[in-house]
# Entry
Amino acid sequence: MTDMPVGERRQLAPPAVDTGAFGWVRKNLFSSWGNGLTTIVLALAFGWLLSWFLHWALFTATFSAATGAECRGGGACWALIREKYRYIFFGSFPYEQHWRPLFAVIAMLAMLILSSDRRMWNKRLLLIWGVGSFVTFLLMFGQIHIPLGLILFVALAVGGLGMILRGTLGTAAEVNGWRALAAIGAVGLVLRLFGVLPSWSLAIAPLSYVETGLWGGLPVTLILATYGLLFAFPFGILLALGRRSNLPLIKGLCVGFIELIRGVPLISLLIMASVMLPLFLPSGTTIDKFLRAQVAVILFAGAYIAEVIRGGLQSLPKGQFEAADAMGLNYPQKTLLIILPQALRVVIPPLINTFIGFFKDTSLVLIIGIFDFLNTANQALVDPNWAGFPGEVYLFAAFVYFCFCFSMSRYSKHLEIELNKGTRR
Amino acid sequence: MAVETLGSRSPAKVSPWNDPVVRGWVFQIVVVGLVGLLAWFLVSNTVENLQRQKIASGFHYLEREAGFEIGDTMIAYSPASTYARAILVGLLNTLKVAVLGIFLSTILGTLIGVGRLSPNWLLAKVCEGYVEMFRNVPLLLWLFLIYKVISEAFPGPRQAIDVLSTFFLSNRGLYFPVPLASPVHAWMGLALLAGIAATVVMKRWARKRQDATGQPFPVIWAGFGLVLGLPLLVWLLGGAPHQMSWPELKGFNFEGGTVIQPEFTALLVGLVLYTSAFVAEIVRSGILALNKGQSEAAMAIGLSRAQVMRLVLLPQALRIIVPPMTSQYLNITKNSSLAIAIGYPDLVASVNVTINQTGQAIENILIIMAAYLSVSLSISAFMNWYNKRIALRER
# Structure
């Protein structure tokens, strides 16, 4: 703003240079006295902080040392990170097998990166996630046993879904195919339940078995967040649809669940999963601690995702629902073919933000004793040989978390602009 | 569902199987039945397991002696107190952190959000850096970092940093003198309340006067004077009791005075820094959502930048800001449960000790859920009331 009084006329001085670097500085840093003062104070403070940080982190830092005692130079002790980085990243996973979690992390990152490409948003995505998940868990566990019951259940589920969705749309041969698949699954499951079929399982065991108790570090954080969201997603969709339904009992159940979960902290759910879940199950059954945490994360995430998706459902014009009804589609067809594709498209950016939240929130599992990335960083501090350098380890961990979350939030912002191109005026 | 419109067109011809109302009820009964079956399965297992482990259910354990120490108590508590009291102490600590956190992060967040919109490039970038730095790293990590830095960087009580022999800063916390209890304090509290009430009345009067005459009244300074001045006056009238309890180094730690513990400091600072990054984004997007004409018009009538922000933009942005802010306030309250990780005795921490000592998992989890749900519901009820109050009254 110029301070020229309104209505006063005088000869204006020729304009100062307001283009180029000088003009930019004048406009953005020294446009007024207060502004200039702010700039100078901030620049001094920032410069002082930066020089102190560089002094600590670079100039007086120790980059290689055998123990913490050799690190008394006054600066940062990055030798600690150098010594412990494999523990921080992979936890207590058998040391000579560290390539397995490494490739599991690479597989998960590849899945995430491939899914971020919009050209992949079709059936290819299913293939990517199926293969990627299989590789990830095969590497982490080393051996996978798929029970016959599970295979039959998948056949039933896929066949049933095909029947519902394609029942009135597909050709007779296709529909019969889905029916056959569902029938095989259903009959097989019943036979299996009565003990006619043996308790056979498909064993894929190329590597040594590593139990979840030994898992740790980055793969644990990534698995908890990624698969937590992946399983919470359909659950959240069901909850959101239930909340929007006009069947009073269904609506009541869904609203109650969502509000209950959203009203309590994640920690209380994790504590519940660790102390109460064993009480809920028949005596003698034990559930893996890791799985318990994963279940808690899924329930928690489901409630939050449901609210995000509800926003998308509400943003659809009523005409879409009515048009689908007019076409004679049944409820599953209407929902899966007309409503959800449009509703989900709107909520992809907020869903990514939700995912960032879960990625950070998985750090809470350390309270029930699971070695996620933050917990392994924490444990690296316990070593008496390297006592006294918490700042270095936490900064390192913060940097890793920052890289993940920041890139995801940038992607979400980019996507928001991309997806809105068609509707922007 | 809209299917009903198809069905209700000719209800007489529809077979029960195709009647959407019948279908709806069948579906609901099946789902509720399945949920009930699951609940029955869980409950029956639980009952069986509890019997096998010989755990008596019920809340009688609450009256037993707790037997554990709590580091920070707002009400009288000793290990001889009951579990109920221990849990109450934890709840009060949770509320203390939540209320202070909400207050401080609103102020800091608003400043940073406004700072991001500053015409000063450097200030805007510093605020943006702050937001990105705190938003993209887990809160728990910040808490650990702050807590460890406090306990490692500050000296032990014997080498405490001595500020004017009044404040003693060590890794046990900040010790400072407090006035000894005196009956005058109760009256000072009353005077404070009276000062606040008088300020509210004065604000109304000042607004009325400004509406009538256009004369502004310095409400902020006068209110400041009333809120601080009245208790001071009472203190002077009450004979100015100035007996203080001074912190003194005895053995390995300080005695006397009062202390702000490092766990509390780390929790509060971490929560405020983290949440204010989110608050800043809410404030910024609230202001950006306003029509550009608003700030241009305000500047055109000659208001200063600060006045434009305070009198024109923020009051309007408030309407957009309040709903997402409510969920941030709820987040602070829920996130204060991370206290357990750095050893601050909040509700979850007290209850967790109780679970470990008594084995009464279900009752304790119910207590946690009931407590958080009622706190959350009260906050949302208050914010909804406030939201309604400031909502645009359209004619």
